[in-house]
Each structure stands twice: as structure tokens, then as C-alpha cells.
């Protein structure tokens, strides 16, 4: 059996204080990687990321630490990458997972609701990718979270769908620009995943969504984390510039 061994490698995961990001941190750590759990430093995110890092370090000393940076702030991201290089000498894997939602129809959407989502979900990926590439070792990998929303165009998600479509397109560009260094760039487009964010979807809407999923269930955080782990492993050595749909077969 082929196993994924990331021993000696360093992975930075944005938005890692909960949900998909937390599970990615756990999966990458279990595969031997040193994981950096990014959080925005607001509310309880710092405590949550610190708790997760503590649990991982209890299992393998020195294998995880939390770091605060608002990905929408380019200077904060640049400082985070500088700290990563200082502590670890560089970076092997970047997982762009941080995201927010501010759902509203275009007619009712405030300009700040548009701007906030674009700043975090799209500009945040640009900031992290730009400054990560400056410290990333050759042969690394970037995985960014796209979304089924970029494909389906869900009602009330003009900001979110536009940002995620941009992320998917950005990874195709990065796959070309970074190829000379052997760095691969891909996106994952999850369907509906059982997270705190998805819990805000009204129950009647969730029921209608479920009818579109041939596998008959919503995704789990581990469904997504395992695909990210694969994309960063040598098993995906010839996979770049792709958007991998992980949605239970949803074709809407």
C-alpha cells in the first residue's frame, strides 16, 4: 500500500482554527508535516488555533504552531511568511482555505459586503500565494479552496461565487508561472460541507440541495482534507492547474 509521508515538510494552512482548515491541519500533521495554523486573530480564533496546535504537539512535539494574520492585509501576510521562513527555513505547501460569506442579492448587497468577501476570499489568496512563493522551496504545492458556488451560481452569492471563480482561475495562472520551479497549483471546489458556515443555510434550502447530490449526503471536512493531502503528495506529481470538484456528484 502506498502511504503519504510528508515528514520534513512544512505546510501553512490559512483559516485553520475550525472546520475544513482544522481538519487539514490534522491530516497533514498525521502525514508527518510540520503545520502552521493561520488564524485572523479575531474573536476566539486565536484560542481555537492554539488549542489545536497544542493537541497536535502533544502527539508529536514541535509539529505545529499557530500564527495570526488577516489574509486580506498584505503586510500582515508578508510578515507571516517572513516568520515562517525564520522558523522553518522556508515553506513546502500553502493551503489557501480562509474565507467568509456575506450572502445577499445584488440589489440588497451593501458595497462593504461585496468588498469584504473579495478582500478575504480573493485578494487574500493572492496575498498568501504571492508571499508564499517568495519562500517556497522548489517542488512545493499550492492548494486553494474554490467552490461549487463558482460553478452553480447560487442565489444571493454574487460576491462569494465571483471570488471563488477568481481563485480557480488564479490557480490555473500560477500553475504556469510556477511550473519552472516544479511548484504545482490546484484548486478544490467543495460542494456543501457540514461546517459552521454551512449551518447558516436554511433547513429548507439544505433539503433541496441534498436532492442534487447522487451520494445522498453533504461532504465532511475530512472529504476535503484528504483531497488536499493528495494534491500535495507525490501521488499528484502530474496534477497542476486543475479544479478538483469534491461534491458527491452534484450536477445541479
Mean pLDDT: 96
CATH H-level superfamily title: NAD(P)-binding Rossmann-like Domain
Helix content: 40-55%
Task: Give the DSSP E fraction (strand runs of 2 or more residues).
Answer: 15-25%
Quickly count the helices.
Answer: 8
Q: Indicate the structural class.
A: alpha/beta
Order of helices and strands: EHEHEHEHEHHEHHE
**Class in CATH?**
Alpha Beta
Keyword list:
single chain, 8 helices, Rossmann fold, 43% helix, seven-stranded parallel beta sheet, alpha/beta
If you had to describe this structure to a student in words, what would you say it looks like?
With 252 residues, the protein is α/β, with parallel strands linked by helices. Helices cover 43% and strands 17% of the residues. It contains eight helices and seven strands. Strand 4 (91-96), helix 4 and strand 5 form a beta-alpha-beta unit. The chain is globular, with a radius of gyration of 17 Å. The termini are far apart. The mean pLDDT is 96.
Amino acid at each position: 500500500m502506498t502511504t503519504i509521508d510528508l515528514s520534513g515538510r512544512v505546510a501553512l494552512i490559512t483559516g485553520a482554527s475550525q472546520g475544513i482548515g482544522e481538519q487539514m491541519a490534522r491530516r497533514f500533521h498525521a502525514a508527518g508535516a510540520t503545520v502552521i495554523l493561520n488564524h485572523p486573530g479575531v474573536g476566539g480564533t486565536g484560542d481555537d488555533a492554539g488549542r489545536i496546535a497544542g493537541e497536535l504537539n502533544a502527539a508529536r512535539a514541535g509539529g505545529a504552531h499557530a500564527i495570526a494574520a488577516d489574509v486580506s492585509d498584505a503586510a500582515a501576510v508578508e510578515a507571516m511568511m517572513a516568520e515562517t521562513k525564520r522558523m522553518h527555513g522556508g515553506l513546502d505547501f500553502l493551503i489557501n482555505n480562509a474565507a467568509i460569506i456575506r450572502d445577499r442579492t445584488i440589489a440588497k448587497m451593501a458595497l462593504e459586503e461585496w468588498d469584504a468577501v473579495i478582500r478575504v476570499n480573493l485578494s487574500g489568496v493572492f496575498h498568501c500565494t504571492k508571499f508564499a512563493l517568495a519562500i517556497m522551496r522548489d517542488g512545493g504545492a499550492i492548494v486553494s479552496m474554490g467552490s461549487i458556488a463558482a460553478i452553480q451560481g447560487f442565489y444571493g452569492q454574487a460576491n462569494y461565487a465571483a471570488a471563488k471563480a477568481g481563485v480557480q482561475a488564479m490557480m490555473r495562472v500560477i500553475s504556469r508561472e510556477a511550473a519552472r520551479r516544479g511548484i504545482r497549483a490546484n484548486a478544490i471546489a467543495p460542494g456543501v460541507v457540514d461546517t459552521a458556515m454551512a449551518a447558516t443555510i436554511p433547513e429548507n434550502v439544505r433539503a433541496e440541495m441534498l436532492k442534487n447530490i447522487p451520494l445522498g449526503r453533504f461532504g465532511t471536512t475530512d472529504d476535503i482534507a484528504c483531497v488536499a493531502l493528495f494534491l500535495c503528495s507525490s501521488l499528484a506529481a502530474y496534477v497542476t492547474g486543475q479544479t478538483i470538484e469534491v461534491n458527491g456528484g452534484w450536477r445541479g
